[in-house]
Amino acid sequence: MKRIKSSYVYFFIFILCVESILVFILNYNKNTNIDNIEKQYIQRLNTQFNTVVSFYSTTSTILIDEILNRKEVKNLIQHINTKDINLQQKIRNELHTILEPTYERLSRYGFRQLHFHDIEGNSFIRFHSIEHYGDNLFKDRATILKANQTKTSQFGFEEGKIVNGFRNVFPIFNNNEFIGTVELSNSFETFINELHKNFPFEYKLLISKEYVNSKVFSTLIDEYYTTSTISDFFYEEKDAQLEFSNNNLSNENLILIDTKLKQEITKHLYSKQPFAKSIELSNKQYIITFLPINDFDGTINTYIVSYTQNNALTNEKNKYFILLFSSNIILLVLILAFLLKRFYEQKALFMHKAYTDPLTKLLNRTRFNYDFNHIIDNFDTINHSLIMFDIDYFKQINDTYGHDVGDMVLAEFAEVVKHTLRDNDQIYRWGGEEFAILINDTSKEHITTVAQKLRTTISEHDFKIVGHVTSSFGIAIPDQHDTKDTLLKRADINLYKAKQSGRNCVITD
Questions:
Q1: pLDDT value at position 267?
Q2: Beta bridge partners of 237
Q3: For residue 288, what are the contacts with CB-CB under 8 A and spacing of at least 6?
Q4: Residue 32: in which H helix or E strand, if any?
Q5: CA torsion sign, 330 to 336 to 342 to 348?
Q6: Which residues lie below 8 Å from residue 30, measured CB to CB, with a gap of 6+?
């Protein structure tokens, strides 16, 4: 009996040891995996952030070079350091007149501050706040001081006297003589919009109240900032509104998440180290990642925060149970993989149908707008020409042969055009008997040749039932001031001129 009892004791001791070892191993693996996941999300956010910063820094460099090399701008800013108050105001007014249209266009693309400073670091003209000038910026703006000292371009996040921004500050030279600095900077809202185009996350910016209060004009703080829902010690920008487009994360849910986070992250925020937290809300799991941003002066007063719906951290915390039901989890993963595959297949099919004209099998007008907006986003409008054309006397075809034959002509017409065009030329059915072609070429001679070739091929083709038909063409070649609307309008006007000129001809700019 004693030996039996001892065996039970040894057995239970063995079980306890095994259980302890198992718990230790599972805990170790869980904590290691959680750390790795947090590092992954932190690194991902860091990569996303740096990618956008690099893009806008490069773009700002190009834009400022263009601005400073405008003759009328150079003639004015060479006198930026004059002590004559009247002359200063005259230069300021003329600069505003010359560059205000440029600044308005830049604002539409997310550039918030265009700001000139004299050689002593005094604000000469703020295009984002034209009534504020003359204050010295060396104390509060390290980027401007550094650019002034080194005579080189400086980049970095920094709070200003009015608003913060991702600063791009450049030296100004007149005949190789340093005369001041200029900045072209971006708001966080710009970064949100750019990040949303590429990544399925939501973002916000947290800025230390103490930092903002020490930098920004006190009369403007309430205009641009509001107390963060995450921490009473931080501000958020009022204008940086989330779009809630990728994760079905509504503003109400965001506030609930922030409220849940509030009590447990204060010490983390003051550690000024990156970290991630998992929150459950309405039976959904979210990972919130906090990445501290080094200000240009080396201090840390700001966090960029990303929100994404993901179960990774919670799954790791529940791994004890997941291991017990591993076979079910594997089955669930396979089901989810199948559903995701089906989802993406259906999505691809839906997108194909949404962008394709069912009669001609050409891309439709919706796809044209999508493609052209993509061209605009890549600042490539100047490299794309537009051809608008239609079938001459198509109404007579419908009236004579009926709409069924008209549809046959449209489908056959589309095939003739597709086989005539080059592979990289995009053709769209614009509507009715009207079509459009986007060509990545700005040579008037080349574009006209393409249109003439199309016109000839169409006129020589023997269409079923109706015989020969002709087409009229209007061409718009872009210039640096063109938008989608102006390019379309000119192409349409030229098509109308072709109609008025007897049809079966090509009219270009």
A1: 84
A2: 225
A3: 257, 261, 276, 277, 278, 279, 305, 306, 307
A4: helix 2-68
A5: negative
A6: 316, 317, 319
Q: How many CB atoms lie within 10 A of CB 212?
A: 18
* pLDDT at residue number 331: 47
Distance CA 169, CA 79 (A): 19
Got the DSSP string for 331-396? Answer: HHHHHHHHHHHHHHHHHHHHHHHHTB-TTT-SB-HHHHHHHHHHHHHTT-GGG-EEEEEEETTHHH
Tokens 């079980």 belong to residue? 15
For residue 252, the model assigns a pLDDT of 81
| Phi/psi at 272 (5° precision) | 60, 35
Q: Domain-by-domain residue ranges, the chain?
A: 325-354, 365-507
CATH class of 365-507: alpha beta
Q: Is residue 324 left, alpha or beta, with left meaning phi > 0 and alpha meaning psi from -120 to 50?
A: alpha
How far lies 56's CA from each of 112, 186, 191, 242, in Å?
A: 12, 8, 9, 20
Active-site residue set: 433
Can you give 58-107 as a three-state secondary structure string?
Answer: HHHHHHHHHHHCCHHHHHHHCCCCCCCHHHHHHHHHHHHHHHHHHHHHHH
Residue 337 is predicted with a pLDDT of: 64
Phi, psi of 303, deg, nearest 5: -125, 140
Cα dihedral 49, 55, 61, 62, rounded to 10, equals -160
> 328 exposed, middle or buried (CB, 10 Å; 0-12, 13-18, 19+)?
exposed
Angle in degrees, 0-180, between the axes of helices 2-68 and 85-108, rounded to the nearest 10: 130
Rounded CA separation 285/460 (Å): 64
Question: Which residues, including other chains, have CB under 8 Å from residue 56's CB and lie 6 or more apart?
Answer: 110, 166, 168, 186, 190, 191, 194
Residues 6+ apart with CB under 8 A from 90: none
pLDDT of residue 259: 85
Q: Which residue has the tokens 């931080």?
A: 234
Write out residues in the chain with pLDDT < 70, as ranges: 1-12, 14-23, 237-248, 319-320, 322-339, 342
> What angle is formed at CA 239 by the lines to CA 236 and CA 245, rounded to 5 degrees?
95
Are the C-beta atoms of residues 57 and 296 closer than 8 Å to each other? no
Which residue has 């291991």 as its token pair? 323
- pLDDT value of position 332: 54
pTM (two decimals): 0.52
Could you tell me the two tokens for 449?
A: 């040749």
CA dihedral defined by 447, 451, 454, 455, rounded to 10 degrees?
Answer: -160
Q: Residue 12: its pLDDT value, please?
A: 57
Q: Which of 435, 410, 405, 437 is nearest to 421 (CA)?
A: 437
